[in-house]
Amino acid sequence: MFTTFDRYLLKRYFHVFIIGFIATYGLYVVFDGFTNIDGFQVGVKDDSSTSLLWLMLEFYLYQSSIFFDMVSPILTVLAGVVVFSLMVRHGELNPILSAGIPTYRLAIPLAFATITVNCFIVANQELLIPRIADKVQAERGDLGTSSQFVEPVYDFSTRIMINGQEMLLTEKKMVNAEFVLSKPTVHDFVTVKSGAAYYQSQTSETPGRWLLKNASPRYDELEIAEFAKEMILPGDEPQDIFIVSDVGCDQLCNRNTSSLISTPELIARINNPSFSDLSIRKQTMDLHFRLTRPFMNLIAVMMSIPFVLRKESRSQILNIAFCAFVMGGLFAINQCFFFMGTTRLISPDQAAWFPVITCGTLAAWFSNRVWT
């Protein structure tokens, strides 16, 4: 059970964390809102200030989830540093040490607070962000369509190149879609065009597939090989065509960004034979870094303690500056291993887990420097 002083530290920690998040996000909203005010005015139909403010409120409410995912690791460490710095400034540490209580006993409530924040980060990543991914990617003036530019993708499992003009994520619709069929699927290279293609997710009865409305050429005009008739099917209407593919809407725009999908969806992407080895390697690295992020947050908080409460120094400003320098070193180590994983010098799992081992070892090494 937590003592009264533990609850005091927890209250101070979460107070600093929440105020820090509100302050930083408020600064971002003010700067971004005034910079892109013209984009919001495009979506206002009645030209009233109330409608404009409501549109901005709705947009930044969705964006707060992404912002929380980005700044929470930094605020986690910053809140721990502020808590210990205030203890030293207010003279609260000396009575505790005089009573024979070790300094690292005070780290227990901070570790608990860090784990709690990590739970919120995971819940935000796994439950909230995937549900609002289309809203997060929407334009400032129009949250209803969430249109995105289409990045051409080659489906390695079906040997079909998929391209289009733009993607409407909310409707799962691709405008001016083009599906390039190659040998031996068809007799010769054919580009099937459609003004609107809709993606239908996989169900227990049907695989994931695209519905091409008013396709040109028509299904009966295609010379389809016998084995390919299971992935190129006639639609309900004479001019419609079904093309089976695991490449969905999210893979056709911002496919190198995995922060908008949940971990099960990310694992499904990795196991998807439709993607290239380079794309799968990037997704694998993202998966491992997602798994190691809670450990890195906790290690960073634990490592900040011996530098904020250094036994050799009583200058708190110097201690905080030294701690910031060390945190920058941890970030550099993480980015160094990430670069080596990207350039194939080491495997993706090594690129993600070696920083945890290295930084954890350093945290244990510097633990004897704490003020006791």
Order of helices and strands: HHHHHHEEEEEEEEEHHHH
N/C terminus separation: 24 Å
What is the radius of gyration computed over CA atoms, rounded to a whole number of angstroms?
Answer: 26 Å
* Helical/strand content category: alpha+beta
Count of alpha and pi helical runs: 10
Q: Summarize the main sheet.
A: 9 strands, antiparallel
The number of distinct structural domains comes to 2
Question: Can you count the beta strands?
Answer: 9
Provide the helix percentage: 40-55%
Overall morphology: elongated
Average pLDDT rating: 87
Percent of residues in beta strands: 5-15%
Indicate the low-confidence ranges by residue numbers.
Answer: none
Question: Could you provide a short overview of the structure?
Answer:
The chain has 372 residues and is α+β, with helices and mostly antiparallel strands. The protein is built from ten helices and nine strands. It has two domains: 4-138 and 281-369, no CATH class; 151-252, no CATH class.
Question: What labels would you give this structure?
Answer:
alpha+beta, elongated, 372 residues, 9-stranded antiparallel sheet, single chain
Question: What does this 3D model show about the protein?
Answer:
By secondary structure, the chain is of the alpha+beta class. It has two domains: 4-138 and 281-369, no CATH class; 151-252, no CATH class. It has helices spanning 4-35, 37-42, 49-89, 93-98, 107-128, 133-136, 263-270, 277-308, 316-342, 348-365; strands at residues 147-149, 153-155, 160-163, 166-168, 173-181, 190-200, 209-213, 232-234, 241-244. Strands 1, 2, 3, 4, 5, 6, 7, 8 and 9 form a nine-stranded antiparallel beta sheet that branches. β6 and β7 (209-213) form a beta hairpin. α1 runs antiparallel to α3 (49-89), α3 (49-89) runs antiparallel to α5 and α7 crosses α8. The longest helix is centred in the N-terminal third of the chain and has 41 residues, at 49-89. The radius of gyration is 26 Å and the shape is elongated. The two termini are 24 Å apart. The model has no long low-confidence stretch (mean pLDDT 87).
